[in-house]
Structures are given as structure tokens and as C-alpha cells.
Amino acid sequence: xxxxxxxxxxxxxxxxxxxxxxxxxxxxxxxxxxxxxxxxxxxxxxxxxxxxxxxxxxxxxxxxxxxxxxxxxxxxxxxxxxxxxxxxxxxxxxxxxxxxxxxxxxxxxxxxxxxxxxxxxxxxxxxxxxxxxxxxxxxxxxxxxxxxxxxxxxxxxxxxxxxxxxxxxxxxxxxxxxxxxxxxxxxxxxxxxxxxxxxxxxxxxxxxxxxxxxxxxxxxxxxxxxxxxxxxxxxxxxxxxxxxxxxxxxxxxxxxxxxxxxxxxxxxxxxxxxxx
Length: 276
Known about the structure:
Strand content: 15-25%
Helix content: 25-40%
Number of helices: 9
CATH superfamily of the domain at 4-121: Putative xylanase like domain
CATH architecture of the domain at 4-121: Orthogonal Bundle
Distance between the termini: 37 Å
């Protein structure tokens, strides 16, 4: 059971004993492996691999009646997995391994300007997630540098599929989300086609965030994961998959070619908090 703490009308999920135990075990494992002295990308990959086999559960963040900061660490959707791994890696790298510090790092990644302020402050669209976290020095969008081509999309999927999102039944929340979509539609975006990935794969580093660009034109991203660098240097995808939970898909190019709902990728590189 997770207890809920209400602060200023917002809700934070406090750690129960099981969650605290999971977190403490992870920090002990990081210390045993001396992860804090390793390159940041290696920390990200090592942390992500800890969760192999954890189940994929869709819609976790939408279950609570009010927007709640959830960090379960034993089940994930694809974005929750990336956020959790990145926040844990930041925590390990900086040596402040308190549970509350980790949770605040998740909050900083998940919400606009780094603060939970309700449903509309969550960075629902992942390209918006990249932009907001890039602005605050958490990640860097490297898609253009890798040879991505400029595209522009009329982002409107959530507002035009309002019935799929219970919290959008509130007119004020729907209008707030629509304003987010309008702003996002006006931004420049660079995308790497699937056919380009093999050519640039050697430039991808362990822990780089890969976002699969949607074939659906009003949506930006359909899935996200982390670059996995295998023992032979092959690039794969470490991700929370609806098919099998957290796992490694060993060949990124093959995975992308088999994913019919995507047309390419956007790549963001997490910034080492020890060297911002």
C-alpha cells in the first residue's frame, strides 16, 4: 500500500515499506557495483537492466482520481521506465541516495518546469517532455546533429480523442491541454527515418533516449526506450514493452523496421548531472 500526502491541493505518493525496501536495495546494488564512478550512460544502462522482467502496465499515472506523483519501481509503462531509470541514475551519480530525492527528480522530469501542478502540467507528449527537460539541462535533443530531417505536425491526438482520457472531461483541463498542443504544433522538430538508423547507430551511446515517432499524424511519439549497447557493440533498445515487460530488443534497426506504428525516431541524450 502507498500512502498519499496532500500538499496545497496536490497529491504525492509517499513510500510504503515495500517501495522503500525496493529503493534501498537498488541503492545498495549501485554502491556494490560502484556505479557512481562510471560514465553516465553506463549508469543508465546498468540501472535499466536491473528491471528486466518487470511487468508492463498501461495507464498507471492515470489511475488516481487526482494527479499523483507515482514511482512504483516494480511495474512500468514505457515513459515511466525512462523517467525512473534517469532519476535513479541522477541520484546515484550525485551521491544523494535518499528516497525523497529520487522522487523529486522524477517530479522534475515528468512535469512542466519540474513541478507537479495538476494533470495539465504533466508532459503528456514526449517531444514536449524532451523540450522541457532540454530547456532545464536534463537532456539534449541530438536528432538534428545525427542527420534528422525537419518535420512539422499538427499535434492534436489527445484533444480530438477526448473520451479516451477521463480527466479531459473537464472543460478547463481540455482547454489547457489544447493550448499545449497548439504550442507543440508550432515547434520545429527533427526526425531520423528508420532507414537512417543503421547509418548513425555507432554514434548512439548507452542510455540515449529513443522516441519512436508515430505514423498517426496528430500524435508525436508511440513508444520510448533507452539505447542498449551490447558486448559486441550492437545497438539495441532497453524498454518497457507491452510485449514482455522490461526487456532488451537486441537490434534497434530490426525493432524499428518491425514496428509498423512508427516512421522514425527522435534521440535525446541525458546530461550527466556531475558535469552539466
